[in-house]
Design goal:
By secondary structure, the protein is of the alpha+beta class. 68% of the residues lie in helices and 9% in strands. The protein contains eleven helices and six strands. A four-stranded antiparallel β-sheet has the order 2-3-5-6. It has a two-stranded parallel ribbon with strand order 1-4. α2 packs across α5 and α5 runs antiparallel to α6. The chain is elongated. The termini are far apart. The relative contact order is 0.12. The N terminus is likely disordered.
């Protein structure tokens, strides 16, 4: 009887120790969770390399992907865990039973303890545990590749936002230069009015100068919008600071890896490199493991248990100390997991189709980006080898003719407008070109240096 009374104390102590250990382990795992970094301090002069570094260091989009990976890690740990044994104990008292004096060991108290493996042993033997673990591990691999793919997508957005900022800064510089020149021209021509210039001609010059003022304000807005977009991707919270961007992207250059590249070679590289394509392969393998598990679930879960019961001691006791072993399981008479197997089959088919769809998407991404790159490269090449030079020469000749009195004011204003338009188009072509290069990087899944 003393042993029976001491057992609950030992059991309570063991449970308390398990709870403390579980709490410590949970706390240790919680410390490993991804936490938002402090807002980054942006440099006054931003470079493309610095933008990449800050994105990896402080970008919040990557933290969202990291959290999804940790979630998948938790699923993998849960799937690989072995069920804890179940322990149950009961005490009772017989009110209407009076033990006879001749019965040594008879008493009114009853005590029972049962221990079960919670189907853990047969779960391992029949392979259910291995199938659950395999499915979760494949899902974890897919989640990790999803994080890599998220990095590919957002990194491309960062690089394109940086290119937009560079071009916006270049447009602002050109707009300010044009504003200064047209302001000087307007001030000079005001001195010629009304002796050498009528009011209509002066008004046309003034309108051109005011259009330059408008262009400066529009360029300032484009710069600010580009700064805000880039700061957001870099993890800035609060007001986006005013910062400059290094201007090397204003120069046309063909990356070495693209000088001999073809659409077919880039597509082959993308199929090898794209993480989303590989992730769907793991997703299909995970679904196949789930299908195998659904089929295996038709085998009932069998639990092994041991039971100890006593109602007094001795041969004459109502229930002498008795130890029994047994099995428990549900008979699969009415239902054999048909619904689960059907869902798993649909998941396998869905993952197969999604993988093929991802392959088609990769092909579409590469082909679209390649077409944009080829067109943008031709535009910039023609612009820088022919159009810019001819536009400047035409502008300079008409400017000299106007100052010499052999060209009209309309000829001068038309040449000025054409020169401004060509330079603005050049900046737009540069933006289109680098945007196409970075879109091609995003489509292929690797940096094109």
């Amino acid at each position: 009887m003393r042993q029976a009374l001491l057992s609950p104390r030992l059991l309570a102590t063991s449970l308390a120790a398990c709870l403390v250990a579980s709490t410590l382990v949970t706390t240790a795992h919680a410390d490993e969770l991804p936490r938002p970094p402090p807002p980054p301090t942006l440099p006054q002069m931003m470079t493309l390399g610095e933008a990449d570094r800050l994105f990896h260091q402080s970008g919040l989009d990557l933290l969202v992907a990291d959290a999804q990976v940790v979630h998948a890690e938790g699923d993998a740990r849960a799937a690989g865990a072995i069920a804890n044994p179940n322990v149950s104990a009961s005490f009772g008292y017989a009110f209407d039973y009076a033990p006879p004096p001749s019965c040594i060991g008879c008493q009114n108290w009853t005590f029972s303890v049962q221990v079960s493996d919670n189907n853990a042993l047969f779960d391992i033997i029949v392979g259910k545990h291995a199938l659950r673990s395999s499915s979760a591990e494949k899902a974890l691999a897919a989640a990790r590749l999803g994080r890599v793919d998220a990095e590919r997508i957002v990194r491309g957005q960062v690089r394109q936002s940086f290119a937009n900022l560079v071009v916006a800064k270049g447009s602002l510089d050109f707009a300010k230069d044009t504003q200064d020149k047209l302001t000087q021209s307007y001030d000079l021509n005001k001195l010629r009015y009304p002796a050498l210039l009528d009011e209509g001609a002066l008004a046309r010059i003034e309108v051109q100068k005011l259009e330059a003022d408008q262009a400066v304000d529009q360029a300032k807005l484009a710069v600010r919008q580009s700064q805000i977009a880039l700061a957001f991707l870099l993890g800035v919270r609060g007001v986006a600071p005013d910062f400059d961007a290094e201007r090397s992207l204003l120069k046309f250059a063909v990356p070495t890896s693209l000088q001999s590249a073809t659409e077919a070679s880039l597509l082959a590289l993308a199929i090898q490199s794209r993480a989303d394509l590989r992730a769907w392969g793991f997703a299909r393998e995970s679904a196949e493991s789930e299908l195998g598990l659904a089929k295996r679930q038709r085998f009932p879960d069998i639990g092994i248990f041991a039971n100890y019961t006593q109602f007094g001691t001795g041969n004459d006791a109502v229930q002498p100390p008795t130890l029994t072993f047994g099995l428990s399981f549900n008979l699969p008479v009415f239902y054999q997991q048909q619904g689960e197997m059907r869902r798993a089959e649909a998941d396998v088919q869905g993952a197969t189709v999604q993988r093929e769809r991802a392959l088609a998407q990769v092909s579409s991404d590469v082909s679209t980006a390649w077409a944009q790159y080829i067109a943008a490269r031709e535009l910039v090449t023609r612009m820088e080898t022919i159009i810019l030079d001819r536009a400047k020469k035409a502008h300079d000749i008409v400017d000299l003719q106007y100052k010499g009195g052999t060209a009209s004011l309309m000829d001068f204003l038309d040449a000025e407008r054409q020169y401004i338009a060509v330079n603005q188009e050049h900046l737009q072509d540069i933006a289109l070109y680098w945007g196409a290069v970075f879109a091609l990087e995003q489509a292929v899944g690797v940096e094109l240096k």
